[in-house]
C-alpha cells in the first residue's frame, strides 16, 4: 500500500481536508457548467425559481431545443450531489424533458444564473 497524500479531486468533485473535517464541493464543475452553456458572465439571481410561476406541460410558448434542455437538466441533477438545495428545481425541470418550451428553458437558465450567484470559487 502506498501513501498517495491528500485527496483533492474524485469523480469530478473537489475534496477539501482540514482540521475541522472533510468537505466536498463541485465548484470546478459548476464553473465549467456555466461556461458550457454560455452563462459564465451572466447576471446572477438570488432565488433559483421565480416565485408565483407555475410550470405546465402546455403553456402556449414555442418549443425549445430539447437536446440543450436535457443537457442542462442532467447537469443540474449531477450538481445536486453537493448542492442539495437545487434538488427541487432540478426535479421540477426534469418533468419537462420531453417537448420543453421556451418558458421551461428560461426556468432552467434561471437556475444556472442562481448557481452563478451562489457558487463559492475555490
Helical proportion? 40-55%
Average of the residue pLDDT scores:
89
**Strand tally:** 3
Which series of helices and strands comes N to C? EEEHHHH
Strand numbers in spatial order across the main sheet: 1-2-3
Task: Set down the secondary structure blueprint.
Blueprint: E1 9-10, E2 13-18, E3 21-25, H1 27-36, H2 66-79, H3 87-94, H4 102-118
Helix pairs in contact: 1-4, 2-3, 2-4
Short description:
The chain is an alpha+beta fold and 122 residues long. It is built from 4 helices and 3 strands; from the N terminus they run E-E-E-H-H-H-H.
Q: What can you tell me about this protein's structure?
A:
The protein has 122 residues and is an alpha+beta fold. It has one domain (26-118). It is 40% helix and 11% strand. The protein contains four helices and three strands; from the N terminus they run E-E-E-H-H-H-H. The chain has helices at 27-36, 66-79, 87-94, 102-118; strands at 9-10, 13-18, 21-25. It has a three-stranded antiparallel beta sheet with strand order 1-2-3, with helices on one face. A hairpin with a 2-residue loop joins strand 2 and strand 3. Helix 1 (27-36) packs antiparallel against helix 4 (102-118), helix 2 runs antiparallel to helix 3 and helix 2 runs parallel beside helix 4 (102-118). The longest helix is centred in the last third of the chain and has 17 residues, at 102-118. The chain is elongated and about 60 Å long. The mean pLDDT is 89.
Which descriptors apply to this entry?
3-stranded antiparallel β-sheet, 3 strands, 4 helices, 40% helix, alpha+beta, 122 residues
